[in-house]
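Researcher: Structure for this, please.
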Amino acid sequence: MLNYIKSECYRALHTRSLYLLLGIFGGLTAFLNLVLYLFTAYTPNFRYGTTSFSYSNLVSQPMLYCIAACIVVSVLYEGDSRNGTRKNSIAYGISRTSMFLGKCVVSLIVSLIILIPVMAVYLGSAVVFLEEAGPVTVQDMLMEIPGVSLIALSALILAILLLELFDKTILGLIVWYAILFAIPKVIFILSMKLSFLTPLALWLPVNFFSAEMTVNLTTCSTIWQTAAGMAKCLLAGTAGILLFGISGVLLLRKKDLS
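Model: Predicted structure, token format:
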């Protein structure tokens, strides 16, 4: 499997679409801060030209990290079924389980390679273009990364699993969205009437991020700023990693044997 990981890393790092994605992510963050700067310069009484407002766009939406992880996986592997890459790997004796685990490692490495410069551009452009004011600070941005890291990793693993299970990428992405967003929201709504569902609903990331955080122009209260809240994020992420990782190994091993 180590050789497979090395070959996939080489392929990923020599793929034009990876650098295009890096440019898009970095460009969008810089463009956002530039637009806020221009509105501040040319619009009287514009309230949003601050670092706090810029940071709040990410701090208030932690699930964006999960979406970004899914995009990275899609860019790296959505064509494997169509272009025959998966069949060629199987023909060389690499099991689906090994491919799944190898893709998880490679996707994590690539995600970190993208995250570091994009965050540098985000923070740097905010400091250069915008007034440093408001409740949301650089520390809130930086603490969000470890708080969301394991949840984003579980979303990445789920995306890889679904792309391996379904031949059609769009179907895998729909199921991914349903598992991480739609179904948890349905459970949360049902929990308002069925109280026994409340503990489950409030342990699902998309729900506790929206229910246990307040981030706006005057307040920044994040779940990861307390030890208990950070622990909840890490435990939920660990549970997701174990659930999706073990499910992937079992389902793909069964597919190998069939």
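Researcher: Any notable elements?
Model: The longest strand covers residues 214-215. Residues 96-129 form the longest helix (34 residues).
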